[in-house]
Amino acid sequence: MAITDWPASERPRERLMERGPASLSDAELLAIFLRTGVEGATAVDLARELLRHFGSLSGVFASRLREFREVKGMGPAKYAQLQAVAEMARRALAEEMRTNDALRSPAAVREYLRLALQGREYEVFLALFLDAQNRVIEAEELFRGTLSQTSVYPREVVKRALYHNAGAVIFAHNHPSGLAEPSRADEALTQALKQALALVDVKVLDHFIVAGSGTVSFAERGLL
């Protein structure tokens, strides 16, 4: 049965208009994005298959084109639309961080970093440079590595902080393995960066690890 044949109270689009987007499940929200189904499957059916295939909504957004096309009815056009939605979300979060105190918008910071780093097949080390009011000046990818490690040079980080005239910085890197737990090397690097930046009066406010759809904060763990 097509979604248009469902009772109006059960159709995702009508429910969204009446009750708001928070009332819909991940599959229903994704179905509105997909708009149409294929022969023998509604948009909701396709959305459920995407979620099953990739494990979560964040997994769908982090998918590669080759993987995305493995799901029946999914092609380059839908993939391009999906990536456009993800990029709009990243830019909206970046705008929020540039106008608000990052410490008062922890959810926006966490979501931005997750969208920026999830799904990467190699390690990336990223920095958010902040002004004296903790507003983001620039989000910059500083180093790129391999599947399991990346080399980070404190001297280069200090140079970029001075270039941006930053008062503080938030670091983030991803674990392509999917394990979000900080390693001993991660902890040692964070302390080395904190000490190097302290020499030029730049505070390290946090260091996030992004793994899959999860994030771990060093500040929340008491590792700063």
Mean pLDDT: 85
Structural class: alpha+beta
**Alpha carbon gap, first and last residue:** 56 Å
The poorly predicted ranges are none
**How do the SSEs run, as a string of H and E?**
HHHHHHHEEHEHEEH
Count of beta strands: 5
Sheet with the most strands: spatial strand order: 2-1-3-4-5
Largest sheet: 5 strands, mixed
Can you characterise this structure?
With 224 residues, this protein is of the alpha+beta class. Helix content is 46%, strand content 16%. The protein is built from ten helices and five strands. It has helices at residues 12-19, 26-34, 43-54, 57-61, 65-68, 76-99, 106-117, 154-163, 184-198, 218-221, and strands spanning 124-130, 136-144, 168-174, 203-211, 214-217. Helix 2 crosses helix 3 (43-54). The mean pLDDT is 85.
